[in-house]
Amino acid sequence: MSENRVEIFTDGACRGNPGPGGWGAILRYAGKETQLNGAVEETTNNRMELQAVISAFERLTKPCIVHVTTDSRYVMDGIQQWLANWKRNGWKTAAKKPVKNEDLWKQLDKLVESHEVTWEWVKGHSGHDENEQVDQLANEAIDNLLL
To answer: Is 78 a catalytic residue?
Structure first.
């Protein structure tokens, strides 16, 4: 099954929160690398972090063993710790408030279910090569949006 191994690196960025935002992702599969990015005129940093992961998973066409590297604690903690409780509680937080970005969380939850996924957090802006690259992709997307 090693031929089904995929590495994903993601980042989201926002200029103002909310404000114009962008996301970047790198997928590595079978010796090939694909770079993705996109931007939204009015959004939040957390939405862009989620969108980066969603966009990467949308590219997968069959069940894979996926290793995701992100600098977003929000994404990692959400998917690993909070999601099951949100679903059990009717998409309410422990404080009985609606889950923010519920639409994107539902989308991500559906996308990851057919894959074997591991998550790794890295400190942002700390010299991690791929994290620096996806940060650049996210910021280029914002720059292009603002042209």
So the answer is: no
pTM listed for this prediction:
0.96
- pLDDT at res. 108: 98
Give catalytic status of residue 135 as yes or no.
yes
The catalytically annotated residue of 21, 78, 130, 135 is 135
CA distance 132 to 129: 5
Residues 6+ apart with CB under 8 A from 97: none
Longest dimension (CA), the chain: 46
Which position has the token pair 């998973």?
57
Q: Tokens 């620096």 appear where?
A: 132
pLDDT in tens, 102-127: 999 999 999 999 999 999 999 999 99
Strand partners for 120: 69
DSSP state of 18: S
